[in-house]
Here is the input.
Amino acid sequence: MIYVIRFISYTVWGVVYPFLAVWLIGLRVFDDGAVGLVVGVAVITNRVGSLAFVHVVERYDKRLAIIASQVMAVVASVALHLLSVGPTGSVLAWAFVGGLFGLANSLATLAQVTFIAQQFPHEERKRAFAYENISLNIAGGVAPLLSSFVIVSLTGSYALVPIAFAVTTTVLAVRLPRDAPVEAPVAEPSGVDGFRGGDRLAVLGFIFLTMVAYGQFYGVFPVYAVADLGEGTVGLLFAASSVMIVVLQAVVLRLSTRFDDVRLIVVANVFMAAGSLLLIFTSGGVRVVLVAVLCVALAEMVSGPLYQTLAVQAFHGRATRAMGAVTFVWGVGEAGTIVVGLALVDAGLGAVSFLVGAAAALAVAVLATALRRRLLRLGRVAVPSAG
Here is the structure.
């Protein structure tokens, strides 16, 4: 059930976000700079807003947090629609509502991934997060297609479409099992090196650096490649990435059980580095770029579930704090990469951005090898998820 909820609730965001800027420009309410500000606020709050909800999600039933996030999404959708009908030229009002919409998805993500971490024991968490990755990528493929249909066929009601998905998510969330509120911190066992702050810093550092590499594909590549490949081909490559993950994630998960966590981190980041480097060669045609996409997808299939599992370990089972930190670091890494990468592309130095991404991934491989004993100890210690 939680994976169905993950799929539908992501669509609440995904059905609007891909063409939000296009919709806003079509309203002719304000200039492109203001449109960028509104969309930027929505993206930033979606990516890094999870930290604002950590204590709430940690303390109360995750079902209530999921439902609250959908109520926020409905309010934001209605407000966006009313602003468009007005229409009002207040950038502040639009940015506030855009931020609310982003926060709603951020809360939904935090509550859902925390719920998954809590419902599965240590030895099953990697598999649980792998299935979460599948549901997210199915949504990531379906939502943009749906968004493209809505922007053409239902332009006047564009902002209201997420309501149907939010209501469906709410109905399903009510049927989830309850979880007990956490009223006191779980004490970390004394003398266990695997729970020191250094482990948290290492895991979050790995996540940040890997995201710098992954962000090259997700945020920089479309602008860099559009001149050589065209918008249609770039869109198909993103769809291909989602299909690869949906089809191959279970196979990759089974194969990964043969290797320890350090080897998986190294292999994943070597693939990520290779993918980032190959993205430079858009002039080589679709085949070269498709190999790059495969490398990036394989790396993400391994690293995503693994990093989430290690984060729960490093935070001694405090799943909410772990997932809050993970999603925040993801957001910072992605946002920073996109800002710097697009600036480099604009300056005619797009290749440098991909080289930086490859270097970041290789740095993770080297650091993971250097911290091998520490990481293996962290991965072996089974801790219950405490909220």
